[in-house]
Amino acid sequence: MDYKAGRLVSVNVSEGSVTIKTLTEKHTSGKVNSTATKLGDLSFADNVEILDTSSEGTAAAVDASRLSGMSLDSDDIRYYGLNEEDRIEYLILDDVTGDLWTYAYLTNLEDQSQEMSINVTYTYLVDGTEQTLRSASVKYPVETGGIAIAYKSDGSIQTMQRMKSVKLTELSGSWAMASNQRYAIADDVQVYLRKKRFLLPDYPFRCQCGGLYADRLVQQFQQQCRQTDQDHHRDGAGKLTGSIPILSC
Q: What SS3 class is residue 85?
């Protein structure tokens, strides 16, 4: 049988032979507790395996602690399996954490499309590196600013989405505040310093940019910046996953 990428299957290996069968979806729902040991009334096994997946076949392993505090609907869970103690041993999620996306800052969009043809060039920064995509078939609903990019299993781009922007009122090393909402900052957050018309990539807490050490970004925000725009993509717990703070000074 030909299995399409993204389809749920079970794989059994026995005496050198491999058996693959379609896996029927099995849903549940509930809130993960603060210690990430339970989902609703179900406890996680000590060796629980968690995958976040997409319909296109991309997947990422997730540590249980990553789900702490999340409320998961039945649509967020594609499958779960219990061990002999009725504890969750396997959990397959449906694009819950945001970890399957690549986050970038779109610096330029050049649209030269005609009535009968599409010709769009997207220029964006990922981890401080400029990349360019030329599309002759699809126009993505994005504009200059933070974007999220989803890839297919073959590495081609499935879609681009514009990320919502919020204004930060407070900023610390691990948390940001906006409109009385507190967000955790991802460990791999991308930070760019925007001055006039230029974006300067900055790697938070690790390097130096424009004579200002990145571990002083918080102090800079508090003392010098009058406005901070934050382009972000939230996961189920409201965490700024792959977020891109833009400091305007």
A: coil
